[in-house]
Amino acid sequence: MKTNKVNFKNYNGEQLSGKLDLPVDKKVHSYTIFAHCFTCNKNLKAIKNISKGLTSNGFGVLRFDFTGLGQSKGEFEDTNFSHNVDDLVAAYEFLNANYNPPKLIVGHSLGGTAALFAARKADSIKAVVTIGSPFQPEHVSKLIQSKEDEIEKDGEAEVNIGGRNFTIKNDFLEDIRKNKIDDFIGDLKKPFLILHSPQDKIVGIKNAELLYMHAHHPKSFVSLDGADHLLSHSNDSLYVGEVVASWAKRYLEIDDNRINIKSNQSVIASLSSEDAFTTDMALASHKLLADEPEDFGGNNLGPNPYEFLSAALASCTAMTIQMYAKRKNWPLENVEVHINHKKDHCKDCRNLDHKSKVDIFQRQLVLKGNLDHKQRNRLLDIADKCPVHRTLHSDVEVHTSLSQ
Predict the structure, then answer these.
(1) Strand arrangement of the beta sheet that strand 219-223 belongs to
(2) 188 and 62 share a domain?
């Protein structure tokens, strides 16, 4: 995905720091706002993975730091839950004014609860997703329970949350107590997806049950079985991104023409410095991931570049053979092409040192159908005539330039 740094003002005029994640080909069919968890920030790995799943499906995602957190201005101790809701509305207005009105809002933990409150203030939001979110804002008081009496007595107290110290004021406690989600959730009447892990030890699964019971249809629940609250395992957060994208497409008015616009460039690859080898790719209107194995420093979330090259040879071979068989009206029911790539010493190359290594693609065909010996041998010959095979055996030039 491509990421642009953005900044916008909250209702107090303080600058909020955000990142706008876009599909690699920059073709966005729907914009999304992401609300992070209590005291977290926009750069949490799980959030980036969820955003990656959404952008690979054509969504643009705005993730930002709430007031006083991460790189956003303001003082966290002067904020409360209502302030977070207002920050989400400010994010909505930023997208509305500078890009397109967002259609989807997604929130993690308390951010999900805030997303529900914000959704009723944002007309263009057509669907809402919560991930491990509490039924009521007051649930967060469990994190500061040991200091609650001190806060009420002295007006504020320092609380350690996730290994960091935060000042919590009495206004925060009063605010989470007065905001009740059951006052409006039944009347929200926007498609609602609830994702929650039965093993969540921070926000129990009962919260998902209450959200589902009080919400209006259409509503859906997906169990994140085995995941922890922060979705610390990449497989869990990447799964969430794909599930949310697939679910949301059912309820959003998506401009198919926008998705299928042909790019001037047939293939685009984009790799952020923070993503190791996990590379977003756009092949015309198709989105794919390329990667390297974990033992090579990658995340193993997609084929490596040579596997893509082998795939090009295998698919082109299969198409060419099947096309020839159909033209001849031969009974070829199915063709499988198996490719193995390796580098080995050149044994028969006259112009190369015997120590030189060359790329070797070992190709095996599996032909199914009532073919005679002559037909099978002819199809074996046809494999060498596929366009990708010819390209690999021809003189190839790669012209590289810098884009302005």
Answers:
(1) 2-9, 15-22, 59-64, 30-35, 104-108, 127-131, 192-196, 219-223
(2) yes
